[in-house]
Amino acid sequence: MTIPILIDTDPGVDDAMALLLALASPELDVLGVTTVFGNSDDIRLMTANALAILALAGRDDIPVAAGSAHPLTRPYAGRAHLVHGDNCLGGVQLPVAPRQAEPTFAAQFIVDACRARPGEVTLVAVGPLTNLALALRIEPALPKLVRGVAIMGGSARASGNITPAAEFNIFADAEAARLVFGAGWEIIMAGLDVTCSPRIAEEYLDRLAAAGNRAGRFLADAFVHYLAFYRSRGFTGACMHDVHAVMALVRPELYTAERVCIDVETAGELTRGQTVADFRGLWNRPAQTRLLTGVDETIFLDEFATRIARLP
After folding, report:
1. Does 79 score more than 80 pLDDT?
2. Is the dihedral of CA 133, 32, 166, 183 positive or negative?
3. Does residue 308 have a pLDDT over 90?
4. How far apart are CA 163 and CA 88, in angstroms?
């Protein structure tokens, strides 16, 4: 039985890895892709990247809808081009996709898809959560219409990566993230507690390229700039962040996790965007989040490489 999913993404290098993993996973049925600001505030670039990645994988049948180019209430404050390159794909130029995005705005697209298949769809959000928050405004009953939400974002016990307290995707629109975490649906949170394991470098990129397919070669090439950024910060390898939100759906047994209630700080001078986990139950609120805390790195890496090799 396949899991129908919608992927909400700001296509950078690790987003591309996550999207291609989803396309390579027979357990998943990708109903559509929606785009959001994040790795860039150029929503046209984000959407063009999504269309190009789908074309690379031979999946021009999957609709793409462009979404928000800015946070709900605050100016865009990203600088992800330093990490992902000016085109957010590590400088690799994919052929322009032979089609355009859907005319429907991403938030409405999400609502329509979930209304059409109530209780079936899992939302996979690997960028800022603005589109999901806007979808909740359109349809407050959306949490009752979805199977669940898998998020790459946040940090419960690890520190942040954009501020000492906050992870980038949550910090990019903390107000949206708070709405999403408070909406009442079941959440899988792949945050910095797990997404920095494993780190990969040239040996693994060579393994992806050695498969000889377009997808493997593209990821190996796109990752070069991304890896160089991590090296400039003193790391020997780079993280595959967004991949975990997808892998947790297809191979959940690879992960250790705990259930906890999580909320998002929106007002703190030093802690804005922090995902606060109530490990001791002091809020007396029900736990809504499966917080991923660890992964079997060896099987994870084998599984990713094997699946990517199935693509064109």
Report:
1. no
2. positive
3. yes
4. 21
E strands in 59-178: 64-66, 121-125, 146-152
How many structural domains is the chain composed of?
1
Beta strands 289-295 and 255-264, pairing class: antiparallel
The predicted pLDDT at position 80 comes to: 78
CA distances from 252 to 25, 31, 185, 199, 245 (A): 13, 21, 18, 19, 10
What is the pLDDT confidence band of residue 306, given thresholds at 50, 70 and 90? Answer: very high
Just list the catalytic residues: 241
Helices 130-138 and 174-181 meet at what angle, rounded to 10? 60
- Give pTM, 2 decimals: 0.97
Count CB neighbours of 250 within 10 A.
17
* CA distance to 41, 146, 158, per residue, from 22 (Å): 24, 18, 26
Distance CA 49, CA 202 (A): 24
Contact (CB, 8 A) for 146 and 132: no
Compute the CA torsion angle 160, 162, 167, 169 (nearest 10 deg): 180
Integer angstrom CA distances of residue 117 from 37, 141, 142, 187, 199: 27, 14, 12, 19, 37
SS3 247: helix
| Amino acid at the residue 9 | T
Contact 169, 153 (CB under 8 A): yes
CATH code (residue 71): 3.90.245.10
Boundaries of domain holding 61: 3-308
